[in-house]
Amino acid sequence: xxxxxxxxxxxxxxxxxxxxxxLSKRELRDSIxxxxxxxxxxxxxxxxxxxxxxxxxxxxxxxxxxxxxxGSDDSFNRMFxxxxxxxxxxxxxxxxxxxxxxxVGYLARRDSNRLPPIxxxxxxxxxxxxxxxxxxxxxxxxxxxxALQKLRAAGLPEGVDPYEAHGALEPRIPVHEAAFEPxxxxxxxxxxxxxxxxxxxxxxxxxxxxxxxxxECWRGHWYLAGWDRDRGAERVFRLSRITGKxxxxxxxxxxxxxxxxxxxxxxxxxxGEIADRSALIRLRSGSGYPLRAKATAVRExxxxxxxxxxxxxxxxxxxxxxxxxxxxxxxxxxxxxxVVDRLRAVAKG
Length: 349
Description:
Blueprint: H1 5-18, E1 23-24, H2 25-31, H3 33-38, H4 43-47, H5 60-63, H6 67-89, E2 95-98, E3 104-107, H7 122-134, H8 141-153, H9 180-189, E4 193-197, E5 206-218, E6 221-228, E7 233-238, E8 242-248, H10 260-270, E9 275-284, H11 289-294, E10 297-302, E11 305-313, H12 316-321, E12 327-331, H13 333-348
Antiparallel strand pairs: 1-3, 2-3, 4-5, 4-8, 5-6, 6-7, 9-11, 9-12, 10-11
Helix pairs in contact: 1-6, 7-8
Pfam families: WCX, WYL
Protein name: Helix-turn-helix transcriptional regulator
C-alpha cells in the first residue's frame, strides 16, 4: 500500500529532527519507507553486493543504470523537494549544509524548531475565556474548549477561571446555518466552493462559484466575503440565503486574497453600514424604531405618518423591505426602484 502523504511528511520531519548531523538525500531515501517504495521494486537488491549474477541473463539493463533508474531518481527528487517545501511552509526550519566532499545534507535543529513557553497573565486568560464563551453555541465550541484546556496545562495563572461569568450580559455568536462549517474549512484551506444562492430580489436561487476569503458576523448575521468567478469581482454573501449543500472544488484561487481588515470593510459596506448620501422615507407613526434611531432628521406629516432622513448606503433597500407596508421610499429614485423590485420578488414567492 502507498503510504499517505501526511505520514511521509511526519517521517521526514522526524528524521530531520532526530539526526545530529546533516543527512544526504541518499540517506533519507533509504531511511523512509515511502521513498523506498517510490524507487520502484528491486532497487535495493540491485544495489547490494553480489546481486548482479543472481539477476539472470537479460536482466542487467533493468538493474543497472538506465531509463528505469533515472526515472525512479527523478520521481524521488520531485517528491523530496515537494515534501521539503511543504514542511518549511508548515513552519519547520530545515537547514541545508554542504560537507567537505561537496555533498549536500539536511537537518532540522531542535533549538531552531522549539516554540517558546506559553505564559498568560490574568487579563489574557480572561480574554481567551471570553472568546470561548462567545463560541459556546457554535460548531467551534469543542475546539475552543480544547484549546483552553491545553493553555491551562501550559501555565494558566492560578485562581483564574476562563469560564467564570464577569457580568450579567454574556456574549453569544449563534450559528444556525448549515453552510457555516464547510465555508469555514474552505476559507482555511483556500478551496473554491460552489453553492446555490438566493438573492433577496430573486424568486429562485442561482449557482455561484466563489473563492472564499473570510467569514464575518455582522449585526447578528453571518456573511461570506470572496471572489465571485462568474462576475469577476468581489462579492459578499449572507449565509442564511445559501440553499442546499456547499460543494468544494479542487482548484487553486485565481484572485489575490486581500487583508482581513479590507474584508471587514467590504462586509460592512455590503451590510449597509457605510453611507455616503441620504434617503428620504415615509414611516408609519409608532413603528420602525431601528430606522428612527438612525435618522438624521424627523418631521411629523400627520395622518399617522412621519418623514425621516436616513443615511443611504449599500444594503439599505434590503433593510427597508423588512418593514413591509410601514415604509414608503420617497427618494432617491433608484432606492425606491430597488425596494419595489424586492417586494415584487417576495410577492412572487
